[in-house]
Design brief:
The chain is α/β, with parallel strands linked by helices. The protein has two domains: 20-50 and 89-203, Rossmann fold; 58-87 and 208-390, Rossmann fold (3-Layer(aba) Sandwich). It is 42% helix and 18% strand. The protein contains 16 helices and 14 strands. The strands form four sheets. It has a six-stranded mixed beta sheet, sandwiched between helices. The chain has a four-stranded parallel beta sheet with strand order 7-6-5-8, sandwiched between helices. Helix 9 crosses helix 11. The longest helix has 16 residues, at 24-39. The relative contact order is 0.16. The model has no long low-confidence stretch (mean pLDDT 96).
């Protein structure tokens, strides 16, 4: 089975570039140049130097002793929460800002849900002295207030999206609209493995440093670069893409994606795309999408702002369709309980997005020698108000 992207920008049945004519020059410029630019020695040197000396890579692979005892397996935590800005998102924004500068762009726009991608974009724009506008759903601005203020402190303009349910989908719509109106001097840093080709492939490549490090670290700690399981939460899917990337062709490594079930799969308040979605076009690519019979997008729901998205990236849609990745889900309460569990067993308060990945440990059966890697995609500082409002601890 082939899991890579083809020359048309498709992963199997999913992908492509469904874009307005106004954006064609931008997308075509990216498509024709991104691999060459990313392959340049000077680009690689600068990218890797910033990952090491600015982001703080490699991030630790931590053996979680108490969690391992509880679930009778060897559980490792890939500590992306220790990256500068508190999540994996910075890996991609470093790469894209370097790419934008080589394309001669002067301004940056982005969308954000949980705010981590917005903060990461604002951070690299401050680092490189570039103007930045981030679109964020008004609801997400309210529930992720600390990240809004971080962006503003970093010099970024945060613009609320007030359409739809005022979350990530709506912020993405506004960012796309801005880019259509400002195509020549502006680069759009998409934060996940979504959007028109080449974004899903480009973002996955920048995030693949995660799985590259996991292999090296497991070789050192276990004498074997291959885990038995890799578990990651999936909204759009960038942290999962990074954690899966170097294992996808190793069929003996079981890859587990975890979606947000919200108030329950059948509640009408969910974001479990692989269960509820069907093929459709969203934000420039063909993928799996929660939609009505006549193709209107169904508003998603999750207690975690970063998983509150009605689709998944086209690579994940392909991995689901082929069966290469097994998709599970966790409800709000299951995720929140798992967040408290990780906090109290290992002293790590995770982002609520990450807590969804931890939650499925209770739904799986392991052998004592199984090596399980959970990608801890972000830290829980941004979610303290949500933890407090949930209050069951």
């Amino acid at each position: 089975m082939i899991y890579t992207i083809d020359e048309r920008g498709y992963y199997g049945n999913f992908g492509g570039a469904y874009i307005p004519e106004m954006l064609y020059p931008n997308i075509e410029e990216l498509r024709s140049r991104y691999l060459d630019i990313m392959g340049e020695g000077d680009f690689q040197n600068q990218f890797n130097q910033l990952l090491r000396n600015y982001v703080g890579r490699p991030t630790p692979l931590f053996y979680a002793h108490r969690l391992s005892e509880r679930y009778q397996a060897k559980i490792y935590l890939k500590r992306e929460d220790l990256c500068h800005t508190g999540a994996h998102k910075i890996n991609n924004t470093i790469g894209q800002i370097l790419l934008a500068k080589r394309l001669g762009k002067q301004k940056i726009i982005a969308e954000t849900g949980a705010g981590q991608h917005g903060v990461a974009t604002a951070t690299v724009c401050a680092l490189m002295g570039m103007d930045c506008i981030v679109y964020m759903g008004q609801l997400d601005m309210e529930r992720q207030r600390p990240n809004v203020e971080r962006m503003r402190i970093l010099g970024t303009t945060v613009v609320p999206a007030t359409s739809g349910n005022m979350t990530l989908k709506d912020a993405t719509n506004e960012a796309m609209r801005h880019w259509i109106n400002n195509p020549t001097d502006t680069h759009y840093i998409i934060g996940s493995v979504v959007g028109p080709h080449p974004y899903p492939d480009m973002v996955a490549r920048f995030q693949s440093v995660i799985s590259e490090e996991i292999r090296n670290q497991l070789s050192e700690q276990e004498g074997n670069p291959y885990p038995d399981y890799v578990i990651a939460c999936v909204g759009g899917g960038s942290n999962a893409a990074g954690a899966f990337y170097h294992f996808v062709n190793d069929e003996h490594v079981q890859l587990i994606g975890v979606e947000a079930a919200g108030l329950g799969i059948d509640s009408g308040e969910s974001a479990a795309t692989t269960v509820l979605g069907k093929p459709g076009v969203l934000h420039g690519s063909k993928t799996l999408l929660m939609q009505t019979e006549d193709g209107q997008v169904v508003e998603p729901y999750s207690i975690s702002a970063g998983l509150d998205y009605p689709g998944i990236g086209p690579w994940h849609a392909h991995l689901f369709e082929t069966g290469r990745v097994k998709f599970l889900n966790a409800t709000d309460d299951e995720a929140m309980q798992a967040g408290i569990e990780l906090s109290r067993t290992e002293g790590i308060i995770p982002a609520i997005e990450t807590a969804h990945a931890v939650a499925v440990l209770k739904k799986m059966e392991f052998d004592p020698d199984d090596v399980v890697v959970i990608n801890v995609s972000g830290r829980g500082d941004k979610d303290l108000e949500t933890y407090i409002r949930w209050g069951k601890y």
